[in-house]
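A favour, since you know our structure tokens better than I do. Would you make up a two-line entry for one protein for me to read? Write everything out right here, beneath this request.
=====
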Amino acid sequence: MPVSLRIVRSTKRAGLVALAFTALAKAALAADKPPLAPDPPAPLTTTSRVSATIEFGLPAIAKAIEQDIPQRLATIDERVNCVHRRVLMFRVNANCDLYGFVNRTSGVSLHGRGDRVYGAVSIYGAAEGQGANRFTARIRGETEARATIEAEARPSLRKDWSLDLNFSDSFHWSEAPYLHVLGREIALAPYVEPRIRGQLARVRSRALAAAKKLNLRDKASAAWARAFEPVKLADEPPVWLQITPQGAAFAGVRANDKVLSGTLELSGSAVTSIGQQGASVTPTPLAALGTDVTAPGTFDIILPVRIGYDAIKDKISQAIAALPAQDTTLREVQVYPSSGKLVIGLRITRASDSDPNAGQWTYLAAALKVDDGNKSIGLGDLDVATPDGGETNPALQSIIAQLKQAVNIDYGVSYQNLLMAANQRLTRPLKDGFRMEGKLSSVQFEKAQLLTDGMTLALRASGDLKILYGM
């Protein structure tokens, strides 16, 4: 066989061997690359208690009560035995005619203290007496007195959502009314007080009627149904909040000078979703009212902060570029999720190599390190993910050390913007005089989701969400 033919065959054999080695190397690299395995998308759900402070204006209730109380509370027109004494040798028994009135001199005032409501009305009475026949016609006397009618109620909300006012009332004279006739005192209270007590019964009846007109059950049903409607917390990306009430309780009746209030608590779940609005939830009938309010005033939801993998790639490239000059250079970076870890692929080649496709891939696996206080994330537990991936390479070790130290992404601005948008959207009108006011304040990191298109940091936000009526 000629020598030239042997050389050609040897060259072809060497080319085939080199091609086989290249194919094997590529197959090995493909096998060593950690697979793309993102976390499955899951709804961000938290159990929440929506505290609803229901407030009633006491001046409005007082005005409603006052409308049915007349100015003239009592009229006195009585004949009484006013003289019964011995004059000289004669025993004188004489009757007197009493005339007078009791008027209301002020409006109804209501004020609260603790868990009670107190009402008061001022009254004034005047009376005179005169002998009832011509022999006693010169016998005359007159008097006047002032009194304050006082009422005390301990409001409560019944299980049927009706407002109950448990009344007790009384009145006291600043000076009891007596008619002085010929040295004798004739008490007028027995003739006046029955009429006043009749008016007190009217006050109680009017107050209960005013409470009934509030029709709290229908108003609460409207607010309950509206609470099922989704709330759009943010626009970019769209973030939706779906509250699903499951139970209701009322407690903590309290009052001050102008307001009677209580705490209504709606317990249930709050689901936050990103992107498309979730499926609508059909409102359930208004739940029976309980009385156990364990922690009024609290409200928890999950706020999602999105961080794209491109932001992490940029940070990695900047961190490696800041290293001292070496004989290697970074050509390309990949970042993707794999089984709960963040995979970082680095294509590194010699600095002198001008081929844009040159370089060998090395894959690192990192756990997220979340600094909740500073609202930032970094890379922790950063290790080589491929076997024989260059753990002993000094250049690679310096890169790993640099990435651990220098890759830091601040999400504080993103979370603040989301928090402000959520607070604005949580304040909105409801129905039938109800409105909702929300204010989220404290935020804590709860978990991270490594999804296909980026990571989601789930932050638990806590604050106050009130449902107000009549305020």
User: Anything to note?
Assistant: Residues 3-32 form the longest helix (30 residues).
